[in-house]
Amino acid sequence: MFSSAVRTLLLVAAVPVSLALGGCATVTGSPTQSISIHTVDANDRPIEGMKCRVINGSAEYFGTSPMYDLRVRRSASDLAIECRRGALVARGTAVSRGSGVDAAVKAAMPGGTAALLVDHVSGYRYAYPSAMRLRVGQHLVFDASDDALGRPSRGIQVDAGR
User: Fold this and answer.
1) Residue 140 backbone dihedrals phi, psi, to 5 degrees
2) How far apart are alpha carbons 12 and 15 in whole angstroms?
3) Which of 51, 69, 95, 146 has the smallest C-beta neighbourhood within 10 Å, fewest atoms?
4) Residue range 53-108, pLDDT digits in tens
5) What ranges do the domains of the chain cover?
6) CA 59 distance to own-chain centroid
């Protein structure tokens, strides 16, 4: 039938074609997202200079508040945020949300199920709120579905901080 060299050439040529037809997010999406973190007191007055640790299932980040345009790796796991300065502590959880519309479109495309799997594993289909305001003494939960361009997501208090 075909020689082994021709079979190998056909196989190598088929991989890029299958990725293009599958709508794979690794070709068009971004593995990172920009977020901003601000810290405030009980009266919503800014507290600058808090040392923050941000962590998800993909990576760990450090910075000082306020943090603008922190590039975090997208992930299916939530972001855990903790900012400290002396006895002051502000905690937050940014809920990771996937795009349902994007998922439905990809599933309908040739190779769509494989693209969804790649997006899930790579984290490309997930997003966090773009701006969060952590309040000292509280643990707030932020959801990307509450994200509004130009203003911080509204945090919901989980418990009082320590």
Assistant:
1) -105, 145
2) 6
3) 69
4) 999 998 999 999 999 999 999 999 999 999 999 999 999 999 998 764 454 454 45
5) 4-160
6) 11
β-pairing, 156-160 vs 138-143, is antiparallel
Bridge partner list, 119: none
* Residue 1 in tokens: 């039938």
Instruction: Return the residue matching tokens 């999406």.
Output: 29
Integer Cα distance of 101 and 92 in angstroms: 27
Q: Closest by alpha carbon to 58, among 107, 124, 106?
A: 124
Q: Which of 38, 117, 40, 46 is nearest to 76 (CA)?
A: 117
Sequence letter at residue 151: R
pTM over 0.90? The answer is no
Q: SS3 string of the chain?
A: CCCHHHHHHHHHHHHHHHHHHCCCHHHHCCCEEEEEEEEECCCCCECCCCEEEEECCCCEEEEECCEEEEEEECCCCCEEEEEEECCEEEEEEEECEECHHHHHHHHHCCCHHHHHHHHHHHCCCEECCCEEEEECCEEEEEEHHHCECCECECCEEEEECC
Contact 116, 101 (CB under 8 A): no
Q: What tokens were used for 43?
A: 């009266």
